[in-house]
Amino acid sequence: MAEEITIQVGFGDQFHDLTVRLQDGDIPPWQPDQPLDVVGQRKPRLDAVAKVTGTAKFSQDQRPDRLIHGRILRSPHGNAEILAVDLTAARKMPGVRAALTVPDTFEDSSARYAGAEVAAIAADTEQQADAAMRAIQVDYQLKEHCVTIDASMAEGAPQVGRGDQENVQRVSPRTRGRRRGQNSNPDADRQVVEQMARREKEVDAILAGSDSVVEGTFRTQVQTHAPLETHGAVCSWEDGRLVCWASTQATFGFRGEMTSDWGQVKAGECRVLSEYVGGGFGSKFSAGREGVIGALLAKEAAVPVKMMLDRAGEQTSAGNRPDSLQKMRMGVNKDGIIQALQIRSWGTPGSGIGGAGAHNDGIYKLGEIDKVEYGVRTNCGGAKAHRAPGWPQGSVALEQMMDMAAHSIGGLDPIEFRKRNDDHPIRGAEYDIARQRIGWDLPRVRGGAAPICRGVGIASNLWFSAGGGGASVLVRISKDGAVEVRNGAQDIGTGTRTVMAMVAAEELGITLEMVSTRIGDTNDPQGPMSGGSTTIGTLTPAARLAAHHAKKELLAVVAERKGWDPADLDLRKAKVIRNDGSDTGLSFKDACSLMDDDAIEVLKARPRRNYAGFSDTNAGVQAAEVEVDMETGVVRVKKMVAVADAGKLINPMTAESQVRGGVIQGVSFALHERRIMDRHKGRMLNDDLENYKILGSVDCPEIDVVLIDVYNGKSNTQVMGLGEPPIVATAAAVANAVADAIGVRVFELPITPRRVLEAIALQETPVVQPKKKGARL
Amino acid sequence: MDKRAEESPEGVSRRHFLKGAGAAAAVVTVAKIPSVVDAGHEVSDDPVILGPGSIPITLKVNGVSREIEAPPSTTLLDMLREYHRLTGTKRVCDRGSCGACTVLLDGRIVDSCSMLAIDAVGREITTVEGIGTPQNLTDLQQAFVEKDALQCGFCTPGMVVSCTALLNQNPTPDRDQIRQGIAGNICRCGTYQNIIEAVEHASRKGGK
Lengths: 777, 208
Fold this sequence. Notes:
The complex is a heterodimer of chains A (777) and B (208).
Chain A: E1 3-11, E2 14-22, H1 48-52, E3 68-74, E4 80-86, H2 88-91, E5 96-101, H3 102-106, E6 110-111, E7 117-123, H4 126-133, E8 137-142, H5 149-153, E9 168-172, H6 186-209, E10 212-220, E11 223-224, E12 232-238, E13 241-246, H7 251-258, E14 270-273, H8 288-301, E15 305-308, H9 311-317, E16 320-321, E17 324-332, E18 338-347, E19 368-376, H10 391-408, H11 414-420, H12 427-438, E20 452-460, E21 472-478, E22 483-486, H13 496-508, E23 515-518, H14 535-562, E24 569-572, E25 575-578, E26 583-587, H15 588-593, E27 599-605, E28 621-629, E29 635-645, H16 652-671, E30 702-708, E31 710-711, H17 725-728, H18 730-742, H19 753-762
Parallel strand pairs in A: 3-15, 13-14, 18-19, 22-23, 29-30
Antiparallel strand pairs in A: 1-2, 1-31, 3-7, 4-6, 4-8, 5-7, 9-19, 10-17, 11-16, 12-13, 12-15, 17-18, 20-28, 21-22, 21-27, 24-25, 25-26, 28-29
Helix pairs in contact in A: 10-18, 13-14, 16-18
Chain B: H1 14-21, E1 29-31, E2 48-50, E3 55-61, E4 64-70, H2 76-83, E5 102-105, E6 108-111, E7 124-126, H3 139-146, H4 156-169, H5 175-181, H6 192-204
Parallel strand pairs in B: 3-7
Antiparallel strand pairs in B: 1-2, 3-4, 5-6, 5-7
Helix pairs in contact in B: 3-6
């Protein structure tokens, strides 16, 4: 029976009552006045000791007996058709145990970018595999290539896709009812085009009627994920069953792929293990060709194969954040209210078409929106979800437009302008914190008035991460007092393992040290992927529910053995207590020893739906302070303030780490990282970690994190994820701070010294552009 | 500038060796070194031809000397991971630009991916496993745990080794010195600030 309860929701000193109808079997969320012993404490992660001593075994470190090494041969050509692959000589090389070709294995003979898989070898040693790779004979038919969106969008550009696939294709608004294999459905497409034309006309009219119109063209670059542990797995066949020690963000997804037609493993005959994962950032949801290749090579060789990518393969072929070209027009009235926004965006996800949009919908109230997104096919390695896919690039453009619009109406303060166009229930308070902590109103030498100028910039986050159904957690209390929490999902460095244990410890009234966890094994209960920042919101309500019912069972045993009323008993501070808080004198361990059975085991699934709580989204505000050398163009981010919220905070320490990590990747995106393609050869020039620049310790700014604890009522733990929200606003805040410092805007990321100097020298891109009524994007 | 050793003292670095030998057949190693088998052997002026097959290589790792057969072209990193089965030292870029494979060689940090195992003969090699154990963490490792100076953990062993070397050389580094001390180590998750705090914390405790 659904139980109706009244709970308090809100944050800070702003709480109000909310009536919630609990789903079957669920328990009420923690309340603001409820004392908590573990949840909300700064706790070191449970795997920290293993990680600082080098005893944590990642996939790369697995070494089953008789392990041999796999290598993938990649096409060196910008675009080619594989006519033939001859493995004869390679198979005869010393140590070679297995080999395959990609055209035979995946029925795909097009190597559409430099880095595309062509063949694979497994040999006793890596050196032998490398030597054998050089003996593979490949007959390529070379084709023309395009490796930048400009080249691909140009008149007469060679076709990247197949059949009737055009290089540039609209991906939003979508045409529904498109038939498989067809580029378009002409009838449905015509309707969409007509709607788009009407929309454009409407928004043109609103812009024409606005007091001020600003416009800008923004570009962002391709960013690779570059997790330190590369993609891949150690694959081993044991009695006809496949075991994969996989570096993955989705143990169950990896298994699902391996047991699909594509992966060629029978259902129920694959186990995926991922106790430790060396980063993913959105690139490791798929088993990928390397996973399938590893399994096939291991099968042929009849010994375990380590098939981990090398760094060059990781950089070219394991995923990236697409680039973007964004053209925008924003209409705003003198009172500082946005009237309309027109957006046209292009981006390349590689030779495919989807997933290259630039997102910013809903961060602010933007009036009437006319937005069209295009995907651009290029002969480059394919994009993958990358920490808040689409959002940092969309934010970079939108937030700069916000500043330009505020400036155009008499220089309205950028924070005040944002507040006037923002109705997020949490963010209003966050602006004031960011303003104060970055020293927004302090005097600075800015606007290019001295050799070294300082500036500040602001931008906002938005994310949607309360989790959902699809996870079950097993809680096991043993007769000897040991408590184990089990789920098959992985921890990619976010702290999932630790927060799951903290929630269980809280519910069981014991310390975190008394709980052990087992994760990263598909033989354990179903868990979510580490994606969309939903992992913690999906897992923790199941962990709490399972712990709650395990506690009930334990207290029932105690009540029966002692002749007490079970309804009067609870667990707190590792003791059995009564409802009035008095101690029964029985410790948790003593209580466990009263069991007749070896253990109590409870498996509980997370309630599928979330409640209509206080806020469905994470907000967050970031402010940057930069220092720019007007003579060298070098930008240094001195300080970032990151105000973040993520529902109820389970472990503020690991939450803070997540925010710092997002900010660092965002600063790195703003100033340093970019994939550089050789237009002539079609190859990635910086497929390494020295020419692909990642922010290091010397350039890392001071990061001031402020966390807001929100009781949102969305689930029994009220937790939201925090992997993605903190990277959304960072680059935008830095870009706005640079413009504040030098008095002119740099419209393209990364903001390199050369681009800064060019912007200063040319001054041809004024911060405020003249109103051009009727001009079209 | 990152202060790690660019070359081994004997003048045979992996990078220079590969340049000289050509990329096609990096299996025979020509080394003008005393002896790769026995460090105490008398110095000879004749170049020694090693390989292509395995040769016995004696390394002293974390205080223990072991002789293991391996091709002379084996890097110190691969020797540690594949032959000594010490997998705490990580392979990330495999070309000396990320610091994940950092080990101590006679107390100084080196990128173990960018030197040959035979060049480490007769030297004291310390890997992350030789710094502290789960039951007996150093103050620095304890500070890493308490300050959450790690996320995915893949850069962490290299960071721990670099910071250990820093504190050995300078027990009271300031923030800029700590930043410089880990300048050769890339962290993708973004733990730099927590690492700086951990080193400061360990420094205040007077430990390493």
